[in-house]
Amino acid sequence: MSTFVPPTTASVLxxxxxxxVRESLVVVLEVQGYEVFGVETGEEGLRxxxxxxxxxxxxDVNLPGIDGMETCRQLRASAFSNPILMLTARQExxxxxxxxxAGADDYLPKPFALDELLARVxxxxxxxxxEGAKDSSGRLKLADLWLDPASRxxxxxxxxxxxxxxxxxxxxxxxxxSERVLDRNxxxxxxxxxxxDTSSNTLEVFISALRRKLEIDDLPRLIHTKRGVGYVARVRx
Length: 237
Description:
By secondary structure, the chain is α/β, with parallel strands linked by helices. It has 8 helices and 12 strands. It has helices spanning 19-31, 42-52, 68-77, 93-101, 114-129, 165-176, 184-192, 202-214; strands spanning 11-15, 35-39, 56-60, 84-88, 106-109, 140-142, 145-148, 153-156, 159-161, 182-183, 223-226, 230-233. The strands form 3 sheets. Strands 2-1-3-4-5 form a 5-stranded parallel β-sheet, sandwiched between helices. It has a 4-stranded antiparallel β-sheet with strand order 6-7-8-9, covered by helices on one side. Helix 6 packs across helix 8. Mean pLDDT is 85; it is low at 1-8.
């Protein structure tokens, strides 16, 4: 099994009631460079996602209490838009269809090879990272937000935003890395050119200012906080 190092650390939540399987998946994913968390039940998974918004969820179908299908439905109902990879021992086509209809992005039957699991994880993360790609005009786009690096203009739909140099640099970095959680210190180093002073709240001040400008007319939030880590630009449906 080769080691894949993500360009920036992606966070993965494993929801699996079998302790041995859960711990094995956590270790394997950590070896690949991911930030991994494991919980036992659907209820714990729902709470974790509400508080931490992981980049990807690996979700077993056969969970005690709220099963994986219902957990998936509730995640989608809560506007969690990141990829969900569902694991199950069920082999019937209808079970797979039910899982995909519940909101899963991919479906992996047990038993599975770890290399296949890792390939599915990489594929899903790549697919969801396309949100921040440049379009044919060279603009960066995320939902209705656009940035033109050449002219240093930005807007949401037809509304152009009045951004300072630092605000534009910060937003450009986040959108270029959409769906990826960026570490506070890495953001500070990229935008300001030096390591963050841990006693400073400079980054929070600029994030707050950006949010005020981006969320005009109650438009959906695009910059989200990853508690204890940093920030991520992502679409919430």
